[in-house]
Amino acid sequence: MAAVAAAALARLVAAFLLLAAQVACEYGMVHVVSEAGGPRGKDYCILYNPQWAHLPHDLSKASFLQLRNWTASLLCSAADLPAHGFGNQIPLVARGNCTFYEKVRLAQGSGARGLLIVSRERLRFGRMVRVALYAPHEPVLDYNMVIIFIMAVGTVAIGGYWAGSRDVKKYMKHKRDDGPEKQEDEAVDVTPVMTCVFVVMCCSMLVLLYYFYDLLVYVVIGIFCLASATGLYSCLAPCVRRLPFGKCRIPNNSLPYFHKRPQARMLLLALFCVAVSVVWGVFRNEDQWAWVLQDALGIAFCLYMLKTIRLPTFKACTLLLLVLFLYDIFFVFITPFLTKSGSSIMVEVATGPSDSATREKLPMVLKVPRLNLSPLALCDRPFSLLGFGDILVPGLLVAYCHRFDIQVQSSRVYFVACTIAYGVGLLVTFMALALMQRGQPALLYLVPCTLVTSCAVALWRRELAVFWTGSGFAKVLPPSPWAPAPADSLQPPKDSATPLSPQPPGKEPATPPQPAEQPPEPCVPEETGAGAATREPGSPAEPEGRDQAQPCPVAQPGALA
Fold it and tell me: Which of 30, 91, 442, 531 lies in the 20 to 30 Å Cα band around 464?
């Protein structure tokens, strides 16, 4: 019995070691050269087991052997072997009907020096072909990381600055309205309920994409085309409105949208944005240049979203970032323990499932091809990716910091600090990617960097309470830089019952204000014309108990009305 148990244990250990050897795989290259001359050769990506074979790292040190196309046979039994064997050759066989170990054992027993197993496609190299197997070193970092870093940090900085400036102008009542073409879209304030609904929708969509990728990927592509065209129009519209031509409007009509009679230049801009989106949609799988259009449309989409979505308080920023922080960690690090394949749902969906029949990729990422000279760029992931969520989520916090900067007149210290923190967090993400050699949840590093930095600046300036609630932003506005008070205006003394009003020489002083029972007379500016400033409806009223009249504001030359 002891001998039987020992034999069973030995078989179990052997099976375990074989299983471990099967899953230990690395990327290598097979260099194919025609013996009849012609091109220099071509590299193909392969997976090999380093415990079964040790390949040289340099092609010059690899041996060229004759390739024998034996794909008509599955090589699962001795009957599948050729009559004269594979003497000093590398056979090419098809996958199926038996394990890789059985195929390797038969090929090695027949004199083969190696074995290539084709999984899906039938490769046609010709009859007289020599091949060499080698495994070059993969560089730790790629130069395309610099391009992704510049695009991501630039988008966050520009989007945060643009969104903050636009929102502050709206609250300070100095936004001009010169017609339908200059009306800005209203921002959407994010509430806690909206945050919870958004996260639930993200989780549901990600799980659905994991199980029904081939069906839903086209839905996502269509949504991206529509949203990116809208974002591109929103980004280019301010520039087009500055052009001196194309201001004529279309004739009166009853068509939807056109009944507003848009300007010809804006109509041409809309057609241009739709055309760019359609071109990308048609040629999206052209890896040589389609990624440029995808990145341009993606950046425009992110800028549009940063301008449209507004987080009103730092409390809302913290809630959104922390919830998505946990969401990112769960779907990258926890889901491999829940899936049968042991793969991360987030990484699998972002890069496209390996068993996808459509071979389509989700467009909701910035992608840049690898710029290193290693042949391994053909393997695993020829592109480096950064999801839009890793730009939008911290970008909303950067936009809030810029709005708060202008509120407290802090010379944009919050905005600059948060933008620098985002860049540092992105560099930490790249370092983690290089060290772990696997997909990383960028929000794992971006959220702590931006949140901690913003809190530290608020504590240092002793403004954490106001920064947390955003209180006073719409109630106590700073003095408007667009309509400064005249330099020669006189301030009334605090004890004076009769205020002094600045009057030009030769004019009588202003009469005292009417009693409280009678309605006060409207303030009349000294000068009339385009430069005179009037008080806008809805501006804050004077506090009760004050019986002093304020001088009429006079717009300085060059100030905005």
Answer: 442
Whether pLDDT at 85 is above 90: no
Same domain for 346 and 327: yes
Residue 162 and residue 123 share a domain: no
Query: Is there a domain that residue 111 lies in?
Result: yes
The answer to whether residues 80 and 52 belong to one domain is yes
102 lies in which domain range? Answer: 23-134
Closest by CA position to 101, among listed 13, 11, 17: 17
Determine the Cα–Cα distance for residues 336 and 157; give it in Å rounded to an integer: 34
Spot the catalytic one: 142, 167, 295, 328.
Answer: 328
Contact 346, 335 (CB under 8 A): yes
Question: Range with the lowest mean pLDDT among 132-141, 196-205, 306-315, 433-442?
Answer: 132-141
- Quote the tokens at residue 186: 């209203």
Question: Hey, how many other C-beta atoms are within 10 angstroms of the C-beta on 322?
Answer: 15
Strands (E), 64-115: 65-69, 89-94
Residue 122 lies inside a defined structural domain of this protein: yes
Q: Which tokens in the block code for residue 285?
A: 């799988």
Q: Is 390 a catalytic residue?
A: yes
Q: Any residues with CB less than 8 A from the CB of 463 and at least 6 apart, and which?
A: 408
User: Is 257 a residue whose pLDDT tops 60?
Assistant: yes
- How many other CB atoms are there within 10 angstroms of residue 14's CB atom? 10
How far is Cα 312 from Cα 170, in angstroms, rounded to an integer? 14
Could you tell me the two tokens for 101? Answer: 């170990």
- DSSP annotation string for 195-239: HHHHHHHHHHHHHHHHHSHHHHHHHHHHHHHHHHHHHHHHHHHHH
* DSSP track, 385-433: EEETHHHHHHHHHHHHHHHHHHHHT-TTHHHHHHHHHHHHHHHHHHHHH
What domain count does the chain have?
2
Q: What token pair was written down for 218?
A: 């086209």
pTM over the 0.85 mark: no
> Is-catalytic flag, 58?
no
Task: Tell me 335's DSSP state.
Answer: G
Contacts of 479 (CB under 8 A, 6+ apart): none
The tokens for 41 are: 């050769």
Task: Return the percent helix, strand and coil in the chain, to nearest 5.
Answer: 45, 10, 45
Does residue 428 lie in a domain region?
yes
Which residue in the list 390, 488, 495, 547 is annotated as catalytic?
390
Q: What are phi and psi of 554, to 5 degrees?
A: -120, 125
Strands 365-369 and 383-387 turn out to be antiparallel
In this structure, is residue 515 part of a structural domain? no
Q: Based on the domain organization, do 101 and 186 belong to the same domain?
A: no
> Do residues 87 and 160 both lie within one domain?
no
CATH of the domain at 83: 3.50.30.30
